[in-house]
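Running co-folding for magnesium ion.
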Amino acid sequence: MKIAVLAGDGIGPEIVAEALKVLEVFRGEGVSMELESALVGGVAVDHTGDPLPPETLALCQAADAILFGSIGGPQYDSLPREQRPERGLLRLRKELDLFANLRPAQVFPELAAASTLRADVVSGLDILIVRELTGDIYFGEPRGIRTNAAGEREGFNTMVYSESEIRRVAHWGFQAAQKRQRRLCSVDKMNVLECTQLWRDVVQEIAPQYPEVTLTHMLVDNAAMQLVRNPRQFDVIVTGNIFGDILSDEASMLTGSIGMLPSASLNAQGQGLYEPIHGSAPDIAGQGKANPLAQILSAAMMFRYSLNRADLADRIDHGVRHVLAQGLRTADIAQAGEPVVSTAQMGDAVVAALRAV
Ligand code: IPM
Ligand code: MG
């Protein structure tokens, strides 16, 4: 198993370090893993001028899986677009064709009170958002800022999906639903946007192949509202790149902390990039305050989806549940007055829990 480790910026390196402790436990038990680190994001810009240097891309292409921390920071915001850290991540997704982005949002029973929504609304919540990740307005051409006929600047982007792009991610949505509660909600804006009319049509065309899955469609504005009104109505949501970006941030807060949520981005070959959905949190970087659990849970997804070791994934998931049950809390998930542990203490506790089983 060849794993590329891209820690990136901000809190990335400190939370990746905790996930690596977990990998070391398995290594100690004889699981063979080849790990290699590379630069990405702002730190890559600092060293090479390129947020995705060719060596990093080559390493990722040759790897079975990529363990990715986080990227970005205010010091890079004024760089030309091609040199911004985010471009490194977007290019990596595109180059490896990582079109299926799985973003689970689960409320751990121990943390139901950490949500800004009432516990009776969110407890037991278990949603999977399947976000398309390599198309849509993120990558559509033409794009840019130009001067129009009136001499005024105008910005423009193109929302575009081909039917094959829609079809392959829709299959992911249906198949994920098959393994869960068998409910799939496809989110679009077909009342206004042709691109998403096609989205709805194509998802509808595939539905007969999955008779056991109940398919519904929802407009994105309504979906945003329903997520806070009655989030438990959802099982699997499948949607395009931009809607998925927005709805997955919203769904994450239902769980109490964005610091808990992992993600997987997969291509057709099963290669995957595994990253927490939170960002690089430059305001707390280097202070040992960051919650490493989303990164550790991302490693669990890596074992499940790219490395074919669901057993190890289950162990990590149980280890995380165990430390939460023990009452360990980083600052982001602590209630007022609860004692707080550091990034490393949280990682060490997960390691101890893993060793115990
Ligand atoms: C995400 C992030 C990225 C995105 C940024 C960092 C480019 O918000 O993974 O959700 O917009 O996809
Ligand atoms: Mg986002």
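Result summary
Residues 247 and 264 are 16 Å apart (CA to CA).
The mean pLDDT is 96.
Job closed.
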